[in-house]
Amino acid sequence: MPLLTVQDLYVTYRTPGQPPVRAVCGVSFSLAAGESLGIVGESGCGKSSLARTLIGLQPASAGTLTFEGQAVDRLSRQGFRDYRRAVQMVFQDATGSLNPRMTVRQTLHEVLRVHRMRPAAAIPQRVDELLDLVGLPATVLDAFPREISGGQCQRVSFARCLALEPRLIIADEPVSALDVSVQARILNLVRSLQQRLGLSIILISHDLAVVRNICDRVAVMHDGVFVETGIAADVLDAPRHAYTRTLLEAVPDVGRALQRRGV
Is residue 233 part of a domain? Predict the structure, then answer.
């Protein structure tokens, strides 16, 4: 049984006096436990709207979302709370997603306390374990988000997700706001966490190289529709859809550019 099944999902935004805007148009896919799926496409194609719907921040206009065999829209209040713990999201703006008035220690303590993930006496030890999981030193515990780097903030975001012991993490452009030198370390962290914890990952990105290196499968999204899906290497090495080929052709070829310049 798949961990997550999405069937014919639509997301439509409605504003009084304005025509409706359909961001996601009949998307269907499934995700197995421990599998990683990359969703790629240009800005505005519906990737983030899909992600927000999967975690319950944006209601679906139509379609079904099933998690571990249960329809999410039919869950009880407690069942939906359990679902929200099991499916976590890492946002693109790591610093902005953290409370600026809370230290790293307070952020992680709050998650563990509110969701009763550990007895009060065991919370400090669990915080230390979470820092170790994401490769952060204990020196960041009493720092505010503005006092640490973007890469460290992103690691804190992952630690906050892992505090709830999720089975699926949705990462929405987790490295696009980071320096290139930091991106590789965060991507290595994602890969390491998936392998160590058996997590399922949905990675939303416009960077095809990132998806190739991290994901088992890829879905190419255009105007709210999945135009091509398959094993990541197969799709990116031999694309069948014209839009996928366009995305690949838009990737800069540094070697060719240097040859043209005589370097």
Answer: yes
